[in-house]
Amino acid sequence: xxxxxxxxxxxxxxxxxxxxxxxxxxxxxxxxxxxxxxxxxxxxxxxxxxxxxxxxxxxxxxxxxxxxxxxxxxxxxxxxxxxxxxxxxxxxxxxxxxxxxxxxxxxxxxxxxxxxxxxxxxxxxxxxxxxxxxxxxxxxxxxxxxxxxxxxxxx
Length: 155
Fold this sequence. Notes:
alpha/beta
């Protein structure tokens, strides 16, 4: 009788532990990450488009796999270590008060694997005017569909 009770408790413990584990696996990994930027470091697309239109000096880096915004340097997906290293090399020697915007826009920001590593690099290198383009949905919805300037025409 004790053996049966022990086995039942062991099986129930196993099932409960696995049920909780599988729930944890359902949470998207980006939601578990903290964002390295502050709200003040989010730049609205209309603000950047206006800066580009007025010819204001700002460095723009595409750290994703999307279309290039006018004036952007395409570095590739910052989820890949090699591309974060490329960004680091590009930033080397720039004044720490240089205005810099990074963006991806391949997917919603809360799921994007590229923006956090790139922005963390800017933070680590102590850039004081570092911004993340606030593309909460994606580049197509919040930039291209609004007719904001691209490096090349959309086909």
